Amino acid sequence: MKINTWFGSLEVGSGGEILAFDLFPKGIRELALRSLSLRSSRENLPPEGFDLKAAALECGFVASLSEYYSLLHEVTLEAAKLQVSEAITPDQRIVQAVEALDDINETTNSLSERLFEWYGGYFPESGLVGEALALFIVKYGSRENVPPDDPLYLKARDSMGAKLETADEALLKGFAESVCSLYSRRKQLEAYIESSMEALAPNLTTIAGPMLGARLISIAGSLEKLAAFPSSTIQVIGANKALFKHLRARAPSPKHGVIYSHPFINTSPWWVRGKVARALAAKISLAARIDFYSATKDLSLMGELEEKVRKIRAANPKPPQKR
Amino acid sequence: MKINTWFGSLEVGSGGEILAFDLFPKGIRELALRSLSLRSSRENLPPEGFDLKAAALECGFVASLSEYYSLLHEVTLEAAKLQVSEAITPDQRIVQAVEALDDINETTNSLSERLFEWYGGYFPESGLVGEALALFIVKYGSRENVPPDDPLYLKARDSMGAKLETADEALLKGFAESVCSLYSRRKQLEAYIESSMEALAPNLTTIAGPMLGARLISIAGSLEKLAAFPSSTIQVIGANKALFKHLRARAPSPKHGVIYSHPFINTSPWWVRGKVARALAAKISLAARIDFYSATKDLSLMGELEEKVRKIRAANPKPPQKR
Amino acid sequence: MPDIKLLSEGIFEIMKDKRQLATLNLDPGKVVYGEKLISVEGAEYRTWDPRRSKLGAMVLKKFNIPLSKDSKVLYLGAASGTTVSHVSDIASEGAVYSVEFASRSMRDFIRLASRRKNIFPILADAGKPDSYAHIVEPVDLIFQDVAQPNQAEIAARNAARFLNKNGYLLLSIKARSIDTAASPKEIFKEEVKKLEQAFEPGFEILTARDLMPYHEDHLGVLAKLKE
Amino acid sequence: MPDIKLLSEGIFEIMKDKRQLATLNLDPGKVVYGEKLISVEGAEYRTWDPRRSKLGAMVLKKFNIPLSKDSKVLYLGAASGTTVSHVSDIASEGAVYSVEFASRSMRDFIRLASRRKNIFPILADAGKPDSYAHIVEPVDLIFQDVAQPNQAEIAARNAARFLNKNGYLLLSIKARSIDTAASPKEIFKEEVKKLEQAFEPGFEILTARDLMPYHEDHLGVLAKLKE
Description:
Order of helices and strands of chain C: EEEEEHEHEHEEHEHHEE
EC number (chains C, D): 2.1.1.-
Family (chains C, D): Belongs to the methyltransferase superfamily. Fibrillarin family.
CATH superfamily of the largest domain in chain C: Vaccinia Virus protein VP39
Order of helices and strands of chain A: EEEHHHHHHHHHHHHHHH
Largest interface: A-B, 47 and 47 residues
Largest sheet of chain C: 7 strands, mixed
Strand content of chain C: 25-35%
Subunit structure (chains C, D): Interacts with nop5. Component of box C/D small ribonucleoprotein (sRNP) particles that contain rpl7ae, FlpA and nop5, plus a guide RNA.
Helix content of chain A: 55-70%
Oligomer: heterotetramer
Protein name (chains C, D): Fibrillarin-like rRNA/tRNA 2'-O-methyltransferase
Distance between the termini of chain A: 74 Å
Distance between the termini of chain C: 47 Å
């Protein structure tokens, strides 16, 4: 019986005695690569309870147990490092970008609110929020610098806001610059996710849109896992809390998770949203599977979904009567 | 009897009849300023139940009730705006900076962690964190760009990290730039708080340090409120949760709030920290009062506190015996 | 078409999807704090969330609300104007003198006040009524929601100076702002006693009810001056 | 000088300020996950937090821990190595084959493994023992903490291939990872039954105790192969 080990191929007799062997060269990297290549082999496995280290000694692969362990330590370490270096697949890169985008969104909102509150003491009438406010502050600082041709000139001139001292103006401008930097980061991440999604999962991107598609992959963990989910799971991805409550306390089953943000659902009247969500989840599941297994674009998917949603809406023109 | 109203001074008889009057000019801003100047007058108040609008009609200040209300509306609005524009006092500006700094710290930490996690997939051996990591990524991007004269060259060359694609490198560099922007914002805010505190509250700054002093003002709401607190309150400022628990559920009284960060406390052995906190809080309270009421620097304060702390430590060289 | 019921002068209950408290919008088309606008036969109603307004909660707790379209009101503790806006809707031809101490809140309140002619903003300490005695006329109602430990005293001082003989006091007492440790029930008993006896002029309590479930540990009080 | 008590081979209880579980540090001066180092007469101990380690909790719940200094161990679910580091301390002259499926955890685990000669990292699915059959020798103990719904099956498969006739299985079962809805008690009963009967080879259960108060809804199990 032939068996494969990390240090070589052996021919073993029925009593476990070694009849012949073909040892690998002792290079760490080479041994690690061979070891990795053996991972998925279903044949020539050592029999249950086979003592690898005794065999390695017997064949003369190593001169001592301590050499055996020392070499195996280096080889397993190298193999693990090689695997780790290959772990960042295209869908994992999208997942990283989605997570980074979530962090950026959260911090941008929090710093934008602070800027609004802070600058509001100096020019509460500006009516500006978010990036527009940050850009305004970077440009002018104090409202005294707003020129007559700016649409906000009159409001700035007549503002009840306090006078902005030079030191505070520098502080606010710097703060606004950081906020602007975060807004451009947001755009950069969104653009990356859009183009990566189109390349990785064209069908999912068509059906769900790039951002929702990326979010689904991110919550599932990978495109492979998303493709493996039943569509009933996809329907409630991101509704963990509600789902947990449903399972534990027999609360009503949630109708939709993150797919709620899809325009087909949030533009539908409330009484058909559950049905639309079910149809959408089914199509997303199909799209993810095509993307994972064949990666070719199926041009008919979107038309089918639109038709299905149209039918659902047509069949349910009115809200159900309350009982 | 002479009485002051927002529209003029009146001479009123004992039956409430108007004997004479001196009306103000009808300019909105001028009336608003006069109205504000009457706020703190303790004399010549209208008697209880005095009907101002009837008097204004009677004196001919206005021709109709609707004119009365319309004018009063404009005047109260203008007065309130004037007050709001003066509300941002030097200590309020420090409070704003402290709040902005808190937000910046929180977001910087969260984005730094994300950067560490994300870049860790490409160069886990760098050993860099925080601003050093962000600066490294801005400088080099991929570890392939680390030159042989950089101390991290060997680690970069032999890293188990994945290969960093160009598109991801641009993303990571941009993200790192935003993080760097936040770190410089943090420094700018700290420098502002330090110099403002030295000017506003030199004694508090000497005793507590500028950052702790600013935080105490921020939690109290203003220097005036801080100066009005008893020192037992100052000792536990920022320990709200523990204090609330103490009041509600008879839990032990908290020994110190934010003043815990003071070097006199956190370098003291644990068994004298309560005593040191009490001494420190007393001196902080005194310093805040001097700053609020006289704003002159008292050079003896720090020496007295140091002496007091020295004595506390000398009197309690050993931990109390457990019973 | 939604079903509309009149609860008190200027205060409505509209049935649209669910029962909603509402007032007629004095500033048509404009929303103050994110509430909904509902148009019925040319009239525009603004919904009124009792969880965000002590007065709104008092309406639903069946307090008699002594407000009519020409009421003169002294409102103590205007904050950013959520409730004042509804009082302004109701007393559409009256006057709402609105006192608020925090300049940060006043900044927002000014935006509201500048759009409504019957609101008169006053940035002042409600505990010092002398400081606005040169502005405020005698009123029919004092509404007070100031979250100060000495709120009974504040009510008495303002009533002495500004409240008409037949006028009313509507008061919201927050247990926490009196004492964080004692039980709300004890606090309420104590505060009601203070209103009745501790200061000149004393009040006669007409109604006193907690504002559950809209506000926890809050007592609503309707009172008038002792004769 | 701290008081030291031997609880099991290589496992100590040190009294310093409070009782603390500890092992002798195989990598002196280095800390793995923020634990404390305590030096006593030239020997360096690493404290071991039972709240962060199922095995640590099992020690305190008085499980017999079948580990000695030359043990060969197959550790399934190495994560980032918190517990493996202590197993490596105890089996200082043995071998700890450490299987972990998540490459993110393996990234951190490699840092630990590279400093300790007796750790052999394996990035693989513990449910597929064939994939590391060419590496792992027969072992004296399988420790398993994988939080998979089919953990009984995983234990059986690995035991069949790698566990010595006289070897032991130490298993931590997390109720939530089997079923989020059922009661932990029911789940534990079911899982113990599966270990005994559902797969070849069956196990004989020696000890089964929950890991409270260190870990909620976790069952620790010590078992050996049926004869």
